[in-house]
Amino acid sequence: MTTGSVVAFDQVTKTYGDVRAVDGLTLALHPGETVALLGPNGAGKSTTLDLLLGLKHADSGTVRLFGGSPREAIVAGRVGAMLQSGGLMDEVTVGELVKLACDLHPKPFRVTDVLARAGVSQIADRKVNKLSGGQEQRVRFALATAGDTDLIVLDEPTTGMDVTTRHAFWATMREQADQGRTVLFATHYLEEADAIADRVLVLHRGRLLADGTAAEIKAKAGARRVSFDLEGPIDEAPLRALPFLTSVDISGHTIRIQSTDADATVHALYGLGVFPRNLEVAGLGLEQAFVAITAAEESKSK
């Protein structure tokens, strides 16, 4: 395993015409971290992973893996990647494909161990073009972990997997991190980032908006959720005029709001002369925090 930075981006920029897919990105990843990469469509997640893996080259700035170039790290077998793009070889079996990956790796694991870890031992004799979407994802994971690597990069790894398979997959990834490997994954399943990641990176328009634990990201959003029920006819206007609101959702007799000062909002609510029932005040979940952070950034750019 390694010491020091596993990945280092220093003022990295990548453009496509007038679009800045990555805009002055600076970050570092360290051994044993499990890091989630979040961002809306077009945030620059895929380009960031492509730059990290040497599939694309930065217009400016530097990308270093283990102190050297991405190519050097990959040729040395220090990086395993599971990407959405690119198909699997047809007309070969799962076992044959995984064996090929092991044969090509500088520090291979045993084929039987790789198949078992990825949960594909029972389909080792099946042709790759006969697999379901979830099975294809598990085969891609097997290829990414065919050898002893220090960094595992995963792009939407659990797409197409059922709940049981997803849980088993993440249990395996925790084992990888516990062994000192760094795991970087991009996902649209924010509950996975909340439950799995030691650290969360939020990208928006190629820039790093937030970097911290899931709890720190939630706190950065600066808002809390307030929910309550009201009986009888509901006058929406004064509710929507409550102070410090960032959003309001009225569904029947249930009101759900987000506030940057929940105490002041609740005080003003009682000042309306209404009697809220089942009042709850809670912190934002990671999904709500993510939406709040990116929405605030969008409003700045208008």
Explain what you see.
This is ABC transporter ATP-binding protein. Residues 7-230 form the ABC transporter domain. Its main location: membrane. The chain has 302 residues and is of the alpha/beta class. The protein has 2 domains: 7-218, Rossmann fold; 223-283, Alpha-Beta Plaits (2-Layer Sandwich). Helices cover 35% and strands 28% of the residues. It has 11 helices and 13 strands. It has helices at 45-52, 70-75, 94-104, 111-118, 133-144, 163-178, 190-196, 214-220, 236-240, 262-271, 286-301, and strands at 7-16, 19-29, 34-38, 60-65, 79-82, 151-155, 182-186, 199-204, 207-212, 224-229, 245-251, 254-259, 277-283. Strands 5-6-7-3-8-9 form a 6-stranded mixed beta sheet, with helices on both faces. It has a 4-stranded antiparallel beta sheet with strand order 11-12-10-13. Strand 6, helix 6 (163-178) and strand 7 (182-186) form a beta-alpha-beta unit. Helix 8 packs across helix 11. The chain is elongated and about 75 Å long. The protein starts with 6 loop residues before the first strand and ends with a helix.
Q: What would you say about this model in short?
A:
The chain has a 6-stranded mixed β-sheet, sandwiched between helices. The protein is built from 11 helices and 13 strands.
Which structural traits does this protein have?
302 residues, alpha/beta, Rossmann fold, Alpha-Beta Plaits, six-stranded mixed sheet, four-stranded antiparallel sheet, 11 helices, 35% helix
